[in-house]
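Renewal narrative, Specific Aim 1. Our central claim is that a sequence can be written position by position from structural information alone. The example that follows is taken directly from our test logs and has not been curated for this report. It begins with the structure tokens describing the chain, in the order in which they were read.
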């Protein structure tokens, strides 16, 4: 189990670490959650294994496909009026491929929110990233900086923890 010694950078390419939660204490298999913020954007990071004995690295295994579907359902459960804009595609960030889904939903407090789900597996763990930001003039910039951040953070985690 890697969670006790997992290291997240405090700051990386304009994003600041806000919180880290060790979910294993109360929910074995749910790993660790980290939350990063930059102006107008939040990136949530989940590293976990659901107590599975074997998770194949990469994107193409059945366990990764099922987990991506379940992660999308989790977003739907939280936001019933969800628009699925991109159901699943492969994107490459900092030389690493991820399964990517793109969603939009309305929040009565803040308006329309865009949310990107990215997932892959490595070292027997799922790595799930969720990028969220408001629809508006800076949406394209938020998407670009969020995707860049996820690629660089995954590279950092891979090089410093695995």
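The sequence written for that structure reads:
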């Amino acid at each position: 189990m890697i969670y006790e010694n997992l290291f997240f950078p405090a700051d990386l390419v304009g994003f600041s670490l806000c919180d880290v939660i060790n979910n294993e204490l109360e929910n074995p298999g749910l790993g660790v959650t980290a939350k990063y913020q930059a102006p107008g954007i939040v990136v949530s990071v989940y590293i976990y294994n659901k107590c599975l004995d074997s998770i194949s690295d990469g994107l193409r295994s059945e366990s990764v496909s099922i987990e991506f579907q379940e992660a999308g359902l989790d977003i739907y459960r939280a936001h019933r009026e969800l628009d699925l804009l991109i159901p699943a595609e492969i994107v490459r960030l900092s030389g690493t491929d991820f399964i990517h889904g793109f969603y939009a939903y309305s929040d009565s407090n803040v308006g329309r929110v865009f949310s990107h789900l990215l997932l892959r597996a490595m070292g027997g763990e799922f790595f799930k990233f969720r990028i969220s930001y408001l629809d508006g003039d800076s949406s394209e910039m938020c998407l670009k900086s969020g995707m860049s951040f996820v690629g660089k953070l995954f590279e950092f985690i891979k090089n410093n923890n695995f």
